[in-house]
Amino acid sequence: MEGFVAKHAEQVIGTLSGFDRLVFRGTLRMLAHRGGLMTYLSEVGVLMKEFGEHAQRLTGQLRDASTELARRIGRPVQYLASAAASKEEIARRIAASDGIEHGLICILTAVEPCLSYEVVRHRASRHIEIEPRHRKCLFLYHYQMHPQFGFMHARIQTWFPFAIQICLNGREWLARDMDAAGLEYRRRDNCFTWLGHPDRAQRLMDRQVQSDWPALLDGIACSLNPLHETMFAGFPMDYYWSTYQSEWTTDIMFRDQAALARLYPRLVHHGLTTFLSGDVLRFLVARSPAAANPTATCSWR
Question: Do both 268 and 293 map to the same domain?
């Protein structure tokens, strides 16, 4: 990238590098494997035969606590029966129609695949065991205009082990910071088409990397389940955060449209002749034929 910018220095007036899409996963590690779950049940005095009832009670508490704010301030809680529905489009539509500029937009609920647990009775031994199982359960998606991150969402699994996923956008975050700093810019979707102060914008974006991520993510987790500490008072545990998806992008700003128009056909040709289909599919998080058959090759034609 540095070489490209240096080669076209006469036409380039600035760059902007930083986070784009970020997805974090929150895990209660003690509940994420069978051995840890058995330790938890022993500590809180729950027998294996009582696990189903115990799990249903916590699920009910979580679901009620997670949606209480929406009910109190009159924000919609909407169930989505089809996986084809775009949750982001629905949330943005609600935010626009209701004029939501800060705070909770809505909670969208959906039944989706998950990894949870099931009580299993073994015929031979006549003993019951708790085993990990791929199942389906209700997820709660909280869409909000966060005071720091802007438009974002976070979801929580309502069954054991209550996994969390938080999705935010570095460009959305930067827009908030530039608004607060009084910096002028023009934006189209997720792209800044013009920056009044590219250097200052870059410094704001550099600060994102130095953020206190655990504290920020813990705050969002608390809004998803305000009863977390009460539910696990007998065996306290916190979420462990890991990065599931991280996109880092560099935007290059050209002096005028004509300079980019002259260069653009060469960039397209380079992409078509350099990148393989497998590269593109991997970027789109799809499985390529080469992954299934190591001897196969594929390329754009």
Answer: yes
Alpha carbons 191 and 252: distance in angstroms, whole number: 11
Whether residues 215 and 301 share a domain: the answer is no
- Which domain range does residue 131 map to? 23-169+211-252
pLDDT in tens, 33-63: 999 999 999 999 999 999 999 999 999 999 9
Asked if residue 116 lies in contact with residue 131, where contact means CB atoms within 8 angstroms, the answer is: no
DSSP states along 113-144: EEEEEEEEE-TTT--EEEEEEEEEEEEEEEEE
Distance CA 82, CA 112 (A): 10
Does one domain contain both 286 and 220? no
- How confident is the model over 57-102, as pLDDT tens digits? 999 999 999 999 999 999 999 999 998 899 999 999 999 999 999 9
Q: Are residues 239 and 262 in the same domain?
A: no
Rg (CA), the chain: 24
Domain membership flag for residue 9: no
Task: Tell me which residue of 10, 1, 20, 60 sits closest to 245, measured CA to CA.
Answer: 20
Q: What is the DSSP string of 63-94?
A: HHHHHHHHHHHT--EEE---TTS-HHHHHHHH
Query: Of 241, 187, 190, which Cα lies nearest the Cα of 213?
Result: 241
Query: If you count them, how many residues does the chain have?
Result: 301
The DSSP annotation for 177-245 comes to HHHHHT--EEEETTEEEEES-HHHHHHHHHHHHTS-HHHHHHHHHHHH-TTHHHHTTTS---PEEEEEE
